[in-house]
Amino acid sequence: MSFYDEFLQYSDADMEAVFQHTTSADIERIIGKDRLTPKDFLALLSPKAEEHLEWMAQKANELTVQNFGRVILLYTPMYLSDYCTNKCTYCGFNVTNTFTRKQLTMEEVEKEAQTVAASGIQHILILTGEAPAIAGVPYMKECVGILKRYFSSIAIEVYAMEEEEYAELMEAGVESMTMYQETYNPLLYDRLHLKGPKKDYRYRLDAPERACRAGMRGVNIGALLGLDDWRRDGFFTGLHANYLQNKYPGVEVSISLPRIRPTMGNCETGNSVNDKSIVQFMTAFRLFMPRAGMPLSTRENAEFRNHAIKLGITKMSAGVQTAVGGHIDSQENSGQFAVSDTRNVKEMSDAILQLGYQPVFKDWQAI
Ligand code: SF4
């Protein structure tokens, strides 16, 4: 049994019909409940629920403060390598894009680490494309060996791996992982992933569970919003997170809500997602899973991120460069996507304080 079995139970559900039958009275009753079912969550993603966003936002704020306090954990991504064997139509690093690829040497990893650590950041997220022959587990372990001298927490956002590989990276000092399914729609997934190992939908879908089985402390999942209908992908993201939290109660489960951003070779999906939709997803998810984490990246602009702090967000990135080596040379090469909120760590932290929240640089340390 894996999440795939649960996914199959809902994959043919007529969500449009559910949405059409959802009434204001249903939404009001659901907002008042202490514990929501997947069906309730789906109702909160309906067009009808848009009329109740203000109330959903208030409840989301209450639940977040109850479970997390008024704190926002700050982290920064570090791109180690942009070599990739996949052809994902929406990503600047895809194998057919021609630019000079780069992978950090150990000396460069150390320099990047020193630069990021000097900003006060203690939590680092390392990223690579999918090129295991170049940036595989041995390379990542070597990088982690350097990074753990500078950071209290190291997370990975890399390709889908075997359980033993996750265990090996944890042994080296990694404590959590992010894996975006991109879209839960298998047919669309197939159309967007033209070539490479990432084409295997099911292998990617089960990766977060393999990481949980390996004993990873934190697992973060998500869909790239704007690829498919956001209500559908939002529902399956929540369902997946709920499955992981119920089955692995010791794992800190979180979801991200990344919205598609411009890249080289822009991908037109025809499924736009606006600010109001993201707010609806964010607040609906908070009501469904009060204890789950919710990071928000710099894909979103400063104004939106400030607003989102009170809607359920628990972590934020700051001082972000999406190019390999970008912290030591921002002219180095092309980034994975365009950053929208360009505030540095000090500016982000000041903004959080001004909003009545506390910026936190370290909430966990491996011993
Ligand atoms: S999304 Fe990831 S796997 Fe796909 S092309 Fe970009 S870096 Fe490679």
TrEMBL record:
GO terms for biological process: thiamine biosynthetic process. Its cofactor is [4Fe-4S] cluster. Residues 67-299 form the Radical SAM core domain. Keywords: 4Fe-4S, Iron, Iron-sulfur, Metal-binding, S-adenosyl-L-methionine. It comes from the Bacteria. Gene3D superfamilies: Aldolase class I. One of its GO terms (molecular function) is catalytic activity. SMART domains: BATS. This is Thiazole biosynthesis protein ThiH. It comes from Pelosinus fermentans B4.
